[in-house]
Amino acid sequence: MYRSLEACVLDLERNGHLVRVREEVDPELEMAAIHLRVHEAGGPALLFENVKGTRYRAVSNLFGTLERSRFIFRRTWEAAQRVIALRNDPMQALRKPLSQAGAAWAALSALPKRVRNVAAAFEEIAVSDLPHIRFWPMDGGAFITLPQVYTEDPDKPGPMHANLGMYRVQLSGNEYVPGREIGLHYQIHRGIGIHQHKAARRGEPLKVSIFVGGPPAHTLAAVMPLPEGLSELTFAGLLAGRRFRYGYADGHFLSLDADFVITGEIRPGETKPEGPFGDHLGYYSLVHPFPVMRVHKVYAKRNAIWPFTVVGRPPQEDTAFGELIHELTGDAVKQEIPGVKEVHAVDAAGVHPLLLAIGSERYAPYAELRRPMELLTIANRILGTGQLSLAKYLFITAEEDRPLSTHRIEEFFGWMLERIDLRRDIHFQTNTTIDTLDYSGTGLNEGSKVIFAACGPKVRDLCTEVPEALRDLGEFGGARVVMPGVVVLEGPAFGSYGEAERQLRGLTDALAARGPLTECPLIVLVDDSGFAAESLRNFLWVTFTRSNPSHDIYGVNAEYAWKHWGCDNVVIDARSKPHHAPPLVPDPAVEKRIDRLFARGGSLSGIL
């Protein structure tokens, strides 16, 4: 139970989970590069004691491994799990009232606690005093990557109906007035958006408070998808083992436990260009208008520590967040969507682009022919539920004669591809919403979705070597098997959708002329087949972050029957398109500069 971020840092150090970086480091790209190198090696948390341009220390990689995250919450984890389980299934309290009494009491004892004169615990500083960390070479400025952004419901003010979320905060750059304005980037389906909409409808500014630091439980609370009726502040107190303490100053909500607090307001209709920023799909999110926050005051504890992480192609530190969330709320989706057994948002594919799911198929147990029926109902529920609704690709199946897991990805794909009827079981949704950070669609938040559903007995064997029909295809070469039934082909650079349609029509016609290719139901066209086939991680990233189902799925012997599309073999065009955002590439000069910390005598010598 940590009273502060510093208490956590000292505990991690005592137990061998943290290393101090004594040398001066530059927040301009260097700190991020150091973090990335240490995180990739599975290394410890890092306390930067000498950050250029600021008097404040900074810490990163706190949640860099699932084991370290569990260690941080080792004393409060089980209590939090019990409370969430009780919220997900309130009938537990009636079935087992004595065993659940402790969970109910834990939730009540974690309610936020108001204190007086909260501002006295801080000193007032300027935005320029904060660590201004820039992470990737093309980033538009300095960003806060672990903020807790607090807003209240204009119709129901107070902390119990508030929203605490983790949204991107741009501290500098672009058109922001230095020290007076900062950018708030939040994606669709976020709580802050509801609050801003209500405030704008009233013609009022929305007061915003941004907390940085404090007990690690507060950071995790900001990203938790909590069950209805459990506020983020209550959960933060529950997981911290200590009530969330707060107060008001100048009408703004302040967390007494935070290391830093930035207060301000968003006025109706005010936006400014935000970005670019290296994001969790492994690409830059580009410049778009997002709300601008007018800064009121900035506060800091006298010995404050600035936590940060680096966002980039998975797996990164936020992967551990996802694993923690799954451990805490894994059964929640089962309560919300009847018939669901598992839903897995695949981290290697950037989370939102690809969902794998297992559901029940009970609609017609008497039928001779088993086909997806209930699975399609479940699929539509999944694609209409919260953040899951941002997915592009949903592969859903039912268990048949042996247990199946969505986390054994290659086995899951094999199971589906052995069973799917490609003429019957592919279902598109076009002109709909996708993830704000996904540039494979037709515009910001705009794209399409596709459901692949499969159940019933095995209907085909899958190739484990490149079929002869996929060799000697002219401009399409470099065929490689990624997993049974899946082959990647290398093609010429993408020019336009008109040209791509001609190219893919030529490819699919050539394959149709060579006869049935039943053992290879999925073919993916890529820029570099060697890279895509090198690992499952590469394949998932390339395929599902670089394709828009409505525009990039083709088929061998494809046809429409009463507006339903089907084919013999699916071909996904996963080449990079001109409208895609550029991928994240480190700066070689910075990579060379940070070698000094890992050399003999450096603070990080020997940890890789």
The helix/strand class is: alpha+beta
Largest sheet: 9 strands, antiparallel
What portion of residues is helical? Answer: 25-40%
Query: What is the 3D form?
Result: globular
Bin the strand percentage. 25-35%
Low-pLDDT segments? 90-95, 97-102
Radius of gyration: 25 Å
Distance between the termini: 30 Å
Question: What is the overall pLDDT average?
Answer: 92
Explain what the structure shows.
With 608 residues, this protein is of the alpha+beta class. Helices cover 28% and strands 25% of the residues. It contains 19 helices and 30 strands. The strands form 7 sheets. Strands 5, 6, 7, 8, 9, 10, 11, 14 and 17 form a 9-stranded antiparallel beta sheet that branches. It has a 5-stranded mixed beta sheet with strand order 19-20-21-23-22, sandwiched between helices. A hairpin with a 2-residue loop joins strand 12 and strand 13. Helix 4 (77-88) crosses helix 6. The longest helix is centred in the C-terminal third of the chain and has 17 residues, at 497-513. It is globular. The two termini are 30 Å apart.
